[in-house]
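Good morning C.,

I know you're traveling, so I'll keep this short. The sequence:
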Amino acid sequence: MVLAFFKNTVFITLLSLFSCGNSTSTPLNEQTSISNQKTIAEQTSSTTTEINTNIVFNNKPNDTTKRVGRTFIEDKNTIRTGANQFTAYMPLLKGKKVGIVANQTSIVNDSLDYTDERRIVDNHLVDFIMEFDNQVVKVFAPEHGFRGKADAGEIVKDGVDVKTGIPIVSLYGKNKKPTQEQLKDIDIMVFDIQDVGARFYTYISSLHYVMEACAEAGIPVIVLDRPNPNGHYIDGPILEREHASFVGMHPIPVVHGMTIGEYAQMINGEGWLKNSVKCDLTVIKMKQYNREMEYSLPIKPSPNLPNDVAINLYPSLCFFEGTIVSAGRGTETQFQVFGAPSLPSKIYNYQYTPQANEGAKYPKFKGETCNGLDLRQTPKLKLLNLEWLIDAYVANGKKKTFFNNFFVKLAGTNKLQEQIEKGYTAREIRKTWLKGLENYNQMRQQYFLY
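The tokens, ready to paste straight into the viewer:
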């Protein structure tokens, strides 16, 4: 009885909100394609992010800010993710067959008070959408799976959600791009996954393929925006097209500095989808967010990023995945330590022994003692740290086999490996990134939402 009353109350509220024109830009016209719609974003407070000792990149939207798709925001003084703004996206799902791209981070939370009788805390988006009598027909799962338990790189199989009986389609199995057959019974797609702001974190690659497939099928996509915990800086070499892969699809730096919603707009606006198709895109903005904010993720985004320290260190330490050095997989301190048996213990005096655990069934150097460094007390990084990588290369006794073929894919270029092998310092390497970072920073500001 209470639930029925609540749903009716919410529905009436939604009608009132949208009849009053609470979207941020132009009135909605549901009969018109909006894939190329451009609006002017509201100005945020002026902030800057230092990328190098000699250069500062502006983090404020410029006067030509455009949005490729619709964007909504409710004007209240609370910080909430796109998923928590149900008044913005629930009306778009009414009467539609809904597909959802989701994992364990797709949570409606913040202890939202909907009525005096009910509070929802950490309710999964799939369950939440279904509570409003919406028809969810299929869930698509990225790397690590719907529940976020699979290892990095592990094939994820299709299945069925035990709780709801909804089919789950893997985007990290036989195909990374949804097929037209898999999309045929879907009217609208919702994408809600927590990213960490690194090019080689594959959720943005899944976003690309979902947008591309939906554009080809004529299916609108709603992206529920979430904070970027590494959104306070951009850094690293720009990916070169000849080195594109699923761990790097676009010409961006290693640390891209965009929220997932902004990134979706950039994919659309820069014509990165196959044959330059445009996705019918709607981004549901967050409230009162800016990219300089400290944000602690309530749920780990993948098995090997267990906390804020690991997430901050990840863009720097992931380079070790393309070397003979371990980045801590198979321990409880993943991406907070690094080491290898071949590193000298006098310099690398922190020791650990990787063992199989959740997210690392077969970790590098399983059962072997690694000499390394414990970085858990490292101050929050505002740039990539190259010294750890360079010093490990120099100290390691196996220079010829230090790098493997995966390193170039992670770096997005073969130049970084060549520079390290030639003895370049971190400062010298960083200078070669400046022009690319300047160009990227100018380009990305067109898609700022905050």
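Safe travels,
E.
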